[in-house]
Amino acid sequence: MDNINPDVKHNANAYTISNAGHKFYFGHYLNNARHNLFKIFNQLLHKYNQPAVEEGCLSDCILLSPAKFQAFVSPAALFEQMKQYIPVMEYLKENNNEEAVFGTLRRLLLDLNSFRNYFSHHHYTAPLQFNNFKESQKFKKSMPYLFGSAVAVARKKTKLPHEAFDEIFKWKSGKDKEILEPSWQQEMMEINSAKPTLFGLVFFTCLFLEKKDGTLFISRIKGLKNTTEDKFKANRETFLAFTITLPKPPRLESSDIKLDLVNELFRVPHSVFKTWEAEQQQAFTITNEETGQQAVMKRYKNRFDYFALRYFEDNNALENIFFHIRLGEACLAEYEKEEPGSSIKTRRQVTKSLNGFGPLQFFNNHTNLEDLGYDTSNLREGQMIKINGMPLKYTPQYRIVDNKIGIKITHENTPHIIPQITKKEKQLHSVNPFTFTNAAPDIILSTYELPNLYLYNYLYRLGFIKSPPHDFLQNWLQQQEVLFSSLKNKDTTRLQDTGYKKNKLPLKIKTHLEGGMNAKREVQKKLRALLNNTNETIDKLLEQGKLEKGKGKTGFTAGSVATWIATDIQFFSRPDDRQQKLSDFEYNTLQGYFAFFGSNREKIDALLKSFEITGSNNNRHPFLNPVHVMVNEFTLRVKERQKKGRGPKRKFDTAIYSLSAYFKDYLLKRRKYLESLFKNLNDNIIDSISYFTKVKRNTEPALDFHEPVMLPRNIFNGPIVQGLKEFIQTRGIAFTPGDEKKCSPSFFLKQLLPDLQNFYTFPRVYKKYKETKEGFEFVEDLIIDKDNDLRKCQQKLKSDGESYSELLNRVDKNEQDIRLEQYRDRVMFMMLNEYFNNQGIEELDFTDKTLQDFSKDYMDDATKTILDTEIDMSVRLNGVDIKARLPIGRYGEFRKILRDRRINELLSYFDKQVSWERVQEELEYYNQNRERVLKACIDFEEAVYSKHSKKMNHLIKDNHISHPAFLNFYNSDIARLSDTFPGLNDKTNIAEFRNGFLHNQVIEKKGFLGAFPEFEFDDTLITKQITEKVIDIYSKLKLSV
């Protein structure tokens, strides 16, 4: 295992690995895996303003202790955040217990660390095995389970035929059924051992690599190199199914929006793509001939909002209108708090989101932040800075919440609006003396109105609308102020002058005008809803019978019932002296006890008493009885019959032993309690139950007349339709009779730009189901194409006489989404025209272009489109221009490489500019050769240990001798590094260089020349010269031993 073949050549893909003896190969990828987790953990710690964790101590990180970290975020929320980066966490859960995953991940990290040490050092005293997973007896079973889950994930994520994945498993006939027998790929562990096989080691390592690194890693593993047939591709995709995603690096300078728009218009909206047959979808999956990378030409999310906001900003299009910007989060105070039921003290923070108004580019421009009062001396994107001495996480972005964004109308000559900072008159010693006040928006705008806002402004600039957007909005806002003033003063006469009628106003406002609500009517309505919910739940539980087990169940499970009961207990419990029902800790504990009812049944009564929910002195819950005396209705009926001498002779225990029985009994008592309230409702009862009905007598609804106003949908339609009609008439487009009655901007824009991309004309297939008592039964496919429109299909379905309401609703909703995408595409095309009119691209003639030109026949590779036009591309990063001449269709690929985390250090070796191709070559060489550095280090360690082992055994710590210990021993007992290499100090430089390679980092120029000031770079690859220099150092050190 430890022997390394000295004859191995190191050029790309020159050798095949068939065992774990190539320590240097596995070592540098395991180092990369651990460093990836180091980045993820510290990104999350930074998010919650916690100190960073050292790379060697990841298993001790506070993130893996939810009880300690829940002061900042709940375990469930933390699990969801970490799962975005580490997908395998979803499949480490047992019984849907998310908290237990953190303990499993800790054991994984302990073994990852020991594997990393085993393969990164020559001398390792312990065997290669999963030591820490011995704590989990299920681990050896879970490895095949994880691999099986990986097969399912890969099958779903890729476009490979399903039968390609079937060959990963072997099947044999059993007496009653087909039995699954693992093939060689699934054999993760050696028989009767905790030692991983080669494929177990590869699969384990890939769990913590990025996909691009995982692809390189498996490219030399015997059995995983082949990429020619689907079954071999399926193997590779399975091993890469759980690769991680690293946090995004700091943003680059803004991309060229013209090229972004061109590429976006060529991509198929998801609402269209999902209705295609598999063959058509496969046609839009293209492979780059040069790189071999695959890409699906579809839109994964709505980017129109970004394009519209960017357009308004780039062109200064909206005078006196600012959009809402989220600047970041300020820490106002820090304090320690002891968690309930625990002696653990956690550090908490009081934070406040800071919001402003103005151009996003202004806030992204760090050099101007001093005008805002920020201390910018050490400012970095996403890092902590200070404003008037207070820490602030500064991450400017548009503040879009639930598809809404705030806007501010101002006539002042100001470039931005920021939070006001005031000094408090009274302050506690632990609280910051300053406070922030965010400016509120005037209007809340739905992002669905952004296309209309663009069209309004477009027609205003052409003279077809007379009032500018800010005047239009200001006039509407003034009308609302009159309305709110009338409402506030209950002036119904003035209210009628605004055009509003009282009977069409919302209930809250009508109640306000009437002087208060009818409390009894409101309470009756809420009690009726609770009763209906109770009866529906009882019926569902009785119909289901037993609780279901396993994942993906739609019925009641132990977990869902536990959550239901805990939530309901919290709902009906009266607030205590703190005016709090249950804390997060109390709620989570209660839910956990009910989830494992069998083992906790005897403890639940004491828990409820400790939370003061039940008990003789503190009965905060109106109908919850102790568990051990609760009886079900069946038992009561049997006991009544026994009293009359007609029941069975055996005795019945009155206790509730199952969660299902407890739930049923709880629901029956809930129904009885609600029925009693409904029947006897009076003023005293209304007052006593107001804590959960939220209804009080003789009170008016709370109305805030100073909140921002939500702009009504379609408010721009009137002016747009009138302006478009006039504009279209000037273009010589005639209207047919009846067109003047259509008031949709989408309709008139379609007259102006009738063409669309060809993918909108491809047949769209919807599955037609027939409703039966058992559910939905598949009937046939409903196909909608250019000759078979939606209205005709709906009429045909209705004429069949069958009920297809589910299909009609589904089709109607998706076709509505498609019409919205078409409307947005036409607006994006207009934006693109404006950009080209202002500053075109020399190689691309945009004259007379239509949306039809943004279509590509992917079945025919010979067809050329706008995407195939080669243009000059450039981006500036750290003062260096990266340039390329590529087809427009590869613009995303051009930008993607710039997000490589090694790019900043690499660019330090170039003065003014570098070609994109050169950057690719540099990183490609680095990827293929950095393992050679680790091999040279291990060779050096082997030479030292083989000659001086007796003197070095005392240096063994955690089963290995660290590399710095080897360097220290070399300096003290063999020769000084600084004598052999004058630029190096005793150990620091060379150890940092080694660690840089292990952590997939390029050595920065300043650090490299600091160690070798006389080094002169030639015209060959920078990464090659650095690699060869470090290898040369270790080779000479080895020879000098």
Radius of gyration: 34 Å
Count of distinct structural domains: 6
How does the overall form come out from the CA principal axes? globular
Number of helices: 38
The percent of residues in helical segments reads: 40-55%
Low-confidence stretches: 1-13, 171-182, 375-385, 650-654
Q: Please tally the β strands and state the result.
A: 20
Q: Look at the structure and give the mean pLDDT.
A: 79
Strand pairing plus helix content: what structural class?
Answer: alpha+beta
Beta-strand level of the residues, as a percent range?
A: 5-15%
> Between the first and last Cα atoms, what is the distance in angstroms?
25 Å
- Main sheet: strands, sense, barrel: 9 strands, mixed
